Amino acid sequence: MNIIGREREKDILAKCLESKRPEFLVVYGRRRVGKTYLIREFFNEKFSFYTTGIPNQKTKNQLKAFNESLSYYGDETSSIPKDWFEAFRRLRKILESKSVYRDASSGKKVVFIDEVPWMDTARSDFKPAFDYFWNSWGSSQEDLLLIVCGSATSWIISNILNDKGGFHNRITKQMHINPFTLGECKKFYEDNGINLNRDQKIESYMIFGGIPYYLNLLDSRLSLTQNVDSLIFDERGDLHYEYEQLFKSLFKKPDNHVKIIETIAGQKRGLQRTDLAAKSGVADGEGLTKALRELEQCGFIRQYKNITTSKKGCFYQVIDPFVLFCLYFRSGKIKSWQSFIKSPDYYAWRGNAFETVCLEHIPQIKAALGISGIESSDYSWKSKKIKGGAQIDLLIDRRDDVINLCEMKCTDKPYEITADYRENLINKVASFTEEVKPKKSVHVTLVTSNGYKRNEYSDVVQNDVGPDSLFM
Fold first, then answer.
1. What CA–CA distance (Å, rounded) separates 454 from 194?
2. What pLDDT is attached to residue 446?
3. Nearest to 212 by CA among 35, 409, 451
4. Distance in angstroms (rounded) separating the CA atoms of residues 288 and 66
5. Which of 152, 360, 426, 438 lies 20 to 30 Å from 5 when distance is taken between CA atoms?
6. Coil, strand or helix: which one is 471?
7. How large is the greatest C-alpha to C-alpha distance in the chain, in angstroms?
8. Contact 410/356 with Cβ under 8 angstroms?
9. CA torsion 205→210→214→218, rounded to 10°?
10. Could you tell me if 289 and 370 lie in one domain?
11. What is the model's pLDDT at position 386?
C-alpha cells in the first residue's frame, strides 16, 4: 500500500475485514479528496466485484457500464440488464459462485461500488433494487464487505446514511474522507520528490488546500509559483476551470450552492442566515437549509457561533482554501501569480489565507497547547461597539476554565510584537472581558507561520504555537 496518512481510515477498513459479520461501509467526501484511491490502494485493486457510475449518463449507459463489470468478474450473460433488479441479481450470482475472489487474509468477499450517486438516474429503479440486494441477501452474508462511495456527499447522506427506508439502520460503518492536513501534505511532497520549504508548503495549502488530486498535479521540476501559473492561471491548466466544474459534479442543481458560496466568501468572517438570504437572493426556506447542509457536509463551509449568541445566531464561513483562492482571483485582474507575489495585495491575501489554514488545523493547535484531552468549543467574537471595538476570529473555550484568544500571524520572519500591537491586544482582551464577562482566564495565544521572537512587548502573550506544530 502506498497510502499517505489516513491511519484512522485504514484502521476502519482493517476492522471491516476482520469482522465476523456482514459489513456495509459508506465512504464519502468532496471531489478529488482521494476516496477511490484509498480503497483501491488498500485492497491492492483486488475485489470480488468493482464497478463505478458514469457522470451525466442515463440509465441505459449506467446499466451498460455495470454489465461490463459483471462480464469482467465472470457473468456469462451477454445482454445488458433490462433494469437494476436484474443487474443486482446477476451480481449476487457472481458472489455466490465458488470461483469468486476472496480477500487473501480474511476470506471476505469485497464488493466496491464507486460513484453510486451517478447510478441513481431520474426515474430509474436503482435505489429499490440496491435496497433489495442488501436487505434480501447481502445483510445475511457474514463473509461480505460491501463498500459504496461517492463524491455527491449530499446524495450519500440523504439516500443511504439518513435513509428512512431500506437502508435505515443497515449501515455498519461510515467513513468521511477529509483533505490532507499540513503534516500529510508534507509527507506527500517528500514521497513525490517535490522540494518545497516550510513557507512554500504553507502557501501551497493556502492555494490548493489538502486535496491530493491537486497536489498530484504539481510538477517537481517547477517552483511553486510556476506551478500555480501553469495549473490555475494558464487557460490550458488542469485546474483553470476546476471551480466551475466542482459544484456541477457534486450537486444536480448547483445554482443555489454557487450563489451561497460566493455570497458568504464576500465576508471574511462569514454571514448569519438572515443576512445570507438577503444578500444571495436564495429564499430563507427549506431550499436554503438543504444547500447550507450540503455545503457543510462537503467541507466547503463551516458553521460556528459567536460566543455570545445562540444557535439561531450561527455564522457560515467558507473554509475551503481552493474555493477561496479561485473566488479571490477569478476576476481576471491578476494575469499571473509571478506578477502578484510580494505585492502589498499579496501580503493582505496571505494573512487572510493563513487564518483559514489555522481554522483547518484547530486539533493541531490544541495539541500544541497540551489541551487535546480537555473538552473545548471553538467560537469567534465581534464587539458590539461601533468605535474602538474588536474582533477575534478564534476563541478556544476550555472546560478547565481558560479561554485561548488566538491571533494568527503570517510573516516572512519570526513575528515580533510592536508597541502598537501590544496595545491592540490589550484592547481586545479588555473589550472581550467587558462585553462577554467570562468567568474564565483569558490567555492570548499567537499562532505564527514563521515562529515568534519575544521582546519587551511580549508580556501580553501567554502562549505561542509555531509552524512546526501545525505540521504535526
1. 33
2. 97
3. 35
4. 35
5. 152
6. coil
7. 81
8. no
9. 50
10. no
11. 65
Instruction: Give the number of residues written for the chain.
Output: 472
Q: Which residue has the cell 493547535?
A: 365
Instruction: Assess whether 88 and 227 both reside in one domain.
Output: no
25 & 115 share domain: yes
Q: What cell numbers appear for 358 in the block?
A: 489555522
Distance CA 453, CA 7 (A): 35
Report the C-alpha gap between 206 and 451 in whole angstroms: 18
Q: Quick one: cell of 104?
A: 487473501
Phi, psi of 409 (to 5 degrees): -130, 125
Determine the straight-line distance between the first and last CA of the chain, rounded to whole angstroms: 22
In sequence order, which residues have a C-beta less than 8 Å from that of residue 49 and are 6 or more positions away? Answer: 69, 73, 91, 94, 95, 111, 112
Q: What angle do CA 254, 260, 263 make, to 5 degrees?
A: 135
Nearest Cα residue to 49 out of 100, 120, 106: 100
Let me know: does 303 contact 314? Beta carbons within 8 Å.
yes
- Which domain, by its residues, includes 158? 7-176
Q: Is the separation of the CB atoms in 64 and 80 below 8 Å?
A: yes
Alpha-carbon gap, residue 399 to 402, rounded angstroms: 7
Place of cell 490548493: 208
d(CA 464, CA 449): 11
Residue 24 bridge partners (DSSP): 146
Check whether residue 374 and residue 428 sit in a common domain.
yes
What does the pLDDT look like over 8-33, one tens digit per residue? 999 999 999 999 999 999 999 888 99
Type of residue found at 239? L
Percentage helix, strand, coil, to 5, in the chain? 45, 15, 40
User: Are 261 and 116 within 8 A, CB to CB?
Assistant: no
Q: Is residue 2 part of a domain?
A: no
Q: Is the whole model's pTM more than 0.85, yes or no?
A: yes
Please give the Cα distance from 417 to 419 (Å, whole number).
Answer: 7
The Cα–Cα gap between 88 and 113 comes to: 12
Residue 12: helix, strand or coil by DSSP? helix
Is residue 338 located within the same domain as residue 286? no
Lowest model confidence (mean pLDDT) among 93-97, 244-248, 316-320, 360-364: 244-248
Q: Residue 292: which CATH number?
A: 1.10.10.10
Q: Which amino acid is at 194?
A: I
Q: Which three cell numbers stand for residue 455?
A: 521582546
Alpha carbon 414 to its chain's center: 30
CB of 356 closer than 8 Å to CB of 327: no
In what side-by-side order are the strands of the sheet with 463-465? 271-272, 315-318, 301-306, 376-382, 391-398, 402-409, 441-448, 463-465
Contact between 179 and 38 (Cβ < 8 Å): no
> Contact, 288 vs 271, CB < 8 A?
no
Q: Which amino acid is at 213?
A: Y
